Amino acid sequence: MTVTTADPSIMAPAEWRDFLALTKPKVMRLVVFTALCGMLAAPVAIHPVLGFTAILCTALGAGAAGALNQWYEADLDARMKRTASRPLPAGRMERQAALHFGVGLGVFSVVLMELAINWVAAAILAASILFYVLIYTVWLKRRTPQNIVIGGAAGAFPPLIGWAAATGGLAPLPIILFALVFLWTPPHFWALALFVHKDYANAEVPMLPVVAGEAATRRQIGIYTVPMALAAIAPWPLGLTGAVYGIVATATSLIFAGLAARVAFRTTGADDRMRPEKRLFAYSILYLFIVFGALVVDRWVG
After folding, report:
1. What Pfam families does its record include (predicted)?
2. Would you say 190 and 208 are in contact if contact means Cβ atoms under 8 Å apart?
């Protein structure tokens, strides 16, 4: 498939909305929320101004990673219906502008984090940006159906960043939260991949449904849901959280498991609208918001 791009000589200057779209604001909401919850769940209180600065740096870092991802994948985005309207494939912005924006935003976020907060949080933020851009986007995504499995670590860094911003170090609880998001990522993205697999196939991205088929993808969703649920519940029996978190995490994980089971143990007909997959994908986002929110409430109650 031939990808056409706008002539740079006649391209109008990009608007602020285009630069905002580069940062993937919908994805950023979950990044910011999990980082904030990691910070608020820490045993050390952080000054509100410093806390705001740390969350701002996290958001800017996530935006930088999103911008660099779109810069590198402009050709893929142009071949997928779901992403064809993004600034670069739609011809509203030059690729070099996206590259400069992403690099500048990333460097600024890490330097500000180091100067205003601490070097541990800055180092984790830098690692998260580099992992998403170099490991996931450049190395994994076009080469292996395990791209989401390994690349899931990129989205699991925010709780570590928030905790490190407040404490200057790490502890078992944020590491378990990292594992939770890491294990949550495959069923979350594979549910999406099941009902947009034609997009990935057209772009020749080796997502699991394209390479291994729907049946194998459904099984993997069911398999990954089990350790994900265990990671979500683990802080309670380990004494790292109280009953408020434990009860909420258990209940929401059981709902997640039920939805995942409906996806894992079903066949797809020719006129299937993928309703169970769409429900699982939508709930998976709500699930993290609820679990991490319960963590903060539990901390305040405790």
Report:
1. UbiA
2. yes
